[in-house]
Specification:
alpha+beta, Rhopdopsin 7-helix transmembrane proteins, Beta-Lactamase, elongated
Length: 639
């Protein structure tokens, strides 16, 4: 059954080496130059370069006829293999954020360096000999066995790290790890099959070309899940490179197979070169169509959402609609809307799609680094970008990343109005685990801007409605209050007098118009004003009436006693919009109560003094009776 394997020509193996070289080199360049500062990107690029170095010298080794040159090229080929394992292990540790002792990677690289020193010695490999279809395969030495052990142990360890990293993570990173794990399993198995020939086992590595599967897996993770933030523009370049490889590689393999026959390779090159442009456009169009079909639909829905938000005037309804529509359109797990509360001086959570699933705090203070960055950037920011900035040792971005990680935020879209951050919308993970693309972030920036305008309009409309309602109530209350003989007034939620009646104004020697718009501190002494404001706050918070007896200073400085009943005033949707109060002069009653208290105290004191006198009279009577008995006289007090 394996006879056909033994008859596969060297042209196939040389082509697979060239193919693996070009794909790995393309991946290394693509990943490194996207973000050279990222340690993860650098490690991935170095790993791909190590594979590229192995593949290049593998290809060159199969193109020579001199045994000594072939032996040198095969030994040089193994330099990349020696460093593939520790580089990939280091990369997986970084990617999954797995903690290991500090000396672990150092020891791993030192082992590779020690093996490298033996590559060109008999300890690593002996003389070349014919194995299967390969004319110059070297015989393995003792340090080669150590290298294989080192390679396999690193491969197994990296697989375990990826597996457990995938299990403990979720969302974007989980999908990234899944595809890398799948690709590297195939790549390692394909590349590792070459080790059999070092020991004379004649099983050719027919799966060599599958080494590039790890490249395809990482590219897929890049396209679908934005691994290391590679855009679709660079994917087009990668497609172009793959087509160039086919155009150049297939004719080269044909030339190697048929020696000096140049007609067939030339014809193949001409046909491939003429078909390549059309194939390139078809492949790119298919990639964009498949990848962006759903995205375009989402962008269209986000655009309609932006236009419809300004039509909602009710603030609470608007905020709930934003959270609901964004979760539905983007198919995300949750959404949070924070709005600046000028009274509390912080951004408060006003709407959440699924409160029971939320880990987000109820508020963020303005000094928070996240708020500072949102003001500076002014656009929607995704978690991958924040993570990259955090790697640059920016303390603000590190704090920002911690908040997003803790709260499960994937994107935050600010709502700025004239340079001020009015609100921001935080988005959770997508249900399918995919990442937010650049186009979606741009659309979300537009949604955030429109949301800011819509929220500002709703707040203005709400304030206007409240002002109109208060004015309407003021007129009604003015007519009602002036019909009450007792002191009466109406205040807003800031304890500011909206309207007072004549009785109230008369006590202070003012007119109702003079008192309208004033606060307690402008009317009463500080102690009384603080007490009044505290009572108002309790009535508003509890939405319940309160009965109070307090002293009052009139215009002549006299202290009066009043019995006050303060009640909440409700507007639309049973929202408290102010307080109403009625105060009755109970000074006479207080004076009468005080006089009664004094009379009762005096009566009690008299009774106590009288009781003491009665006791003394009895004592004296007893003494007189005793003396009369001694004198033999009858006592006038004897019974």
């Amino acid at each position: 059954m394996m006879d056909w394997v033994q008859h596969i020509s060297l042209g196939y193996y040389s082509f697979s080496g060239l193919f693996n070289f070009l794909t790995s080199l393309g991946l290394a360049v693509l990943v490194y130059f996207k973000n050279p500062k990222s340690v993860t990107n650098r490690l991935c690029a170095l790993f791909a370069l190590a594979v590229a170095q192995w593949s290049l010298f593998y290809y060159l080794w199969l193109t020579v006829d001199d045994p000594q040159v072939a032996g040198f090229l095969l030994r040089t080929c193994m330099i990349g293999t020696i460093f593939i394992a520790p580089l990939f292990t280091d990369f997986t540790l970084r990617l999954t954020n797995t903690k290991v002792p500090r000396y672990f990677n150092t020891a791993n690289y030192l082992i590779s360096l020690a093996l490298l020193l033996t590559v060109y010695t008999p300890l690593f490999a002996g003389k070349p000999r014919q194995v299967s279809v390969f004319p110059f395969w070297l015989e393995g030495g003792p340090t080669l066995s150590l290298h294989i052990l080192h390679f396999l142990s690193n491969a197994l360890f990296a697989m375990i790290v990826l597996f457990f990293g995938m299990r403990r993570t979720k969302g974007l990173l989980r999908h990234q790890i899944k595809y890398i794990l799948s690709g590297i399993l195939v790549g390692y198995a394909a590349g590792g099959s070459n080790y059999l020939l070092w020991y004379g086992i004649p099983i050719p590595p027919v799966g060599n070309i599958l080494v590039s599967v790890y490249v395809l897996a990482i590219v897929y993770a890049i396209i679908e899940y934005r691994l290391m933030d590679i855009s679709i523009v660079t994917i087009r370049g990668f497609v172009l490179g793959a087509l160039l490889l086919l155009v150049l590689g297939i004719p080269s393999c044909i030339g190697l197979r048929y020696g000096r026959e140049w007609v067939l390779p030339a014809v193949a090159a001409a046909l491939l070169a003429s078909a390549a442009p059309q194939l390139y456009h078809r492949v790119c169009d298919r990639i964009e169509k498949n990848l962006l079909k759903k995205q375009r639909k989402i962008l269209d829905r986000l655009s309609r959402l932006s236009q419809s938000m300004t039509l909602i005037k009710d603030l609470e309804r608007l905020l709930k609609a934003i959270a609901y529509m964004i979760t539905r359109v983007l198919e995300i797990e949750n959404a949070w809307v924070y709005v600046f509360d000028s009274k509390q001086g912080e951004y408060r959570l006003r709407a959440c799609r699924y409160p029971s699933k939320s880990k987000a705090p109820q508020s963020f203070p303005p000094p928070a680094p996240m708020i500072k960055i949102l003001k500076e950037r002014g656009t929607a920011l995704g978690y991958p970008e924040i993570s990259r900035m955090a790697l640059a040792d920016s303390m603000d971005y590190k704090a920002f990343e911690k908040i997003m990680s803790t709260c499960d935020f994937q994107v935050i879209a600010p709502s700025l109005v004239e340079g001020s951050l009015l609100a921001f919308v935080a988005l959770g993970e997508k249900s399918d685990g995919s990442t937010f693309q650049d186009e979606e972030l741009t659309a979300l920036s537009s949604v955030g801007a429109q949301a800011g305008l819509a929220i500002e309009n709703a707040v203005f409309y709400e304030e206007q409605s409240r002002t109109f309602l208060i004015e309407k109530l003021r007129r009604q209350q003015e007519a009602i209050l002036n019909s009450i003989p007792d002191m009466a007034w109406f205040k807003d939620c800031d304890s500011r007098f909206i309207v007072v009646n004549q009785s109230f104004a008369k006590v202070l020697g003012k007119t109702p118009e003079e008192l309208a718009g004033k606060i307690d501190f402008e009317i009463w002494p500080k102690r009384i004003a603080l007490k009044n404001i505290e009572d108002d706050r309790n009535v508003i918070q509890n939405a319940q009436s309160k009965k109070i007896e307090d002293p009052l200073i009139d215009k002549e400085g006299n202290t009066l006693w009043v019995e006050t009943i303060k009640s909440p005033v409700f507007g639309e949707k049973n929202a408290v919009i102010g307080t109403a109060g009625i105060a009755r002069d109970i000074t006479d009653r207080k004076i009468a109560e005080e006089m009664m208290t004094n009379y009762l105290a005096e009566l009690t004191r008299y009774r106590e003094e009288t009781a003491k006198k009665d006791i003394r009279v009895q004592e004296l009577q007893h003494e007189i009776a005793k003396l009369c008995g001694e004198l033999g006289r009858p006592s006038p007090y004897s019974t």
